[in-house]
Design a protein that fits this description.
Elements (H helix, E strand, L loop, with lengths): L4 E3 L12 H31 L6 H28 L8 H32 L18 H17 L1 H5 L1 E3 L4 E3 L14 E3 L4 H42 L7 H40 L5 H26 L1 H12 L1
Antiparallel strand pairs: 1-3, 2-4
Helix pairs in contact: 1-2, 1-8, 2-3, 2-8, 3-4, 3-6, 3-7, 6-7, 7-8, 8-9
């Protein structure tokens, strides 16, 4: 097997490790991601458990997205912080295969869970009127929603199989000639890609960038733009109507418009953070100039920005989450 890795002594900054001040800022960002997403899961999840029918579908999607954010922070970002603090942990080949596979899996799920939120909101706007409540009471979460969750987690697990197979350990001073955008921006804990050839590694990295970077961003932009246009059309239509029977619909349009703006803010944050990461990592891959080291640091902050800031954006549009956050701050 031909390995596409090289093991050479490298400076600390070239691996994307941080000095004291950026390290402190990155630690704050990681802690925000862990605590913020844990808060979203606990608060929104409580509403789901309290409602015997399984809660609102949108709340379940928020919990799914927050859970993927939290798992990325726990399994990857915290390990980055621990490594930068000087704790040398060099896992064996089997551990590296497990870690690299989990990282690719969770990062991919994180992307598509964010798109799922935007797509679901666009779909629900087709029936802007209040949903019909069954006289027999709630019957639990929709099967289509649960199937969507299973599909996202299962398909991305299958996609991450090469990461479980073609990974190895390279030592603490190892670097790699090919970096995959969706998993890691440096040899974390010495774990490296070990594809049979450079071409197979490049094919996997290219597929990852197209499937988990470009396509989701385009789909998110289209669905959210469709949501905003739908709400604008409904707002104009009902502002010209004074029918009494349309009153519930009119009251719902502002709430849906606010939700669409929150989702739009999430998508813009996603595009900025992931876009900066894609540009930085690919610049390092193809141009090992003097500025590439600092771009790797930028990629690390960009990878964590969405995870850390998305709970704050969600708190703006979620009444219960906003109330809990205000009580914590005031306390």
């Amino acid at each position: 097997m031909e390995s596409n890795r090289t093991v050479i002594p490298i400076k600390k900054i070239l691996t994307g490790q941080l000095s004291s001040v950026p390290m402190a800022l990155y630690l704050i960002l990681v802690l925000l991601g862990v605590l913020g997403n844990a808060l979203v899961i606990s608060v929104v999840g409580e509403n789901i458990v309290r409602e015997h029918g399984g809660g609102r579908s949108s709340d379940m999607i928020l919990v799914n997205m927050a859970f993927s954010n939290l798992m990325v922070s726990v399994t990857r970002n915290i390990l980055l912080v621990v490594s930068d603090l000087g704790l040398e942990v060099l896992p064996n080949k089997d551990c590296c295969q497990l870690l690299m596979g989990v990282w690719v899996w969770l990062r991919s799920v994180n992307v598509w869970s964010t798109f799922f939120l935007s797509a679901f909101h666009f779909h629900t706007l087709r029936r802007i009127a209040p949903p019909i409540v069954s006289p027999n009471g709630p019957r639990g979460p929709p099967k289509a929603l649960l199937m969507g969750f299973c599909f996202i987690w299962t398909i991305n697990l299958i996609y991450s199989v090469p990461a479980f197979v073609y990974s190895t350990n390279g030592g603490k001073n190892a670097t790699e000639t090919l970096m995959l955008v969706s998993s890691t921006t440096r040899p974390l804990l010495g774990c490296l890609w070990d594809f049979p050839s450079t071409y197979s590694g490049l094919a996997f990295a290219t597929a990852s960038m197209v499937i988990h970077e470009i396509i989701p961003i385009l789909l998110m932009s289209v669905t959210n733009l469709g949501s905003l246009l739908t709400l604008y059309a409904h707002g104009n239509m009902h502002s010209k109507s004074n029918k009494v029977q349309d009153a519930p619909v009119i009251r719902r349009v502002p709430a849906e418009r606010r939700a669409a703006k929150v989702i739009l803010a999430l998508i813009l944050l996603f595009i900025v953070s992931w876009g900066a990461s894609v540009i930085s990592v690919n610049y390092f891959n193809y141009n090992r100039g003097a500025s590439s080291a600092y771009l790797l640091v930028l990629a690390r902050f960009s990878n964590s920005a969405f995870i850390a800031l998305s709970p704050i954006i969600l708190a703006v549009g979620h009444r219960r989450l906003r109330a809990v956050l205000k009580s914590i701050i005031s306390y």
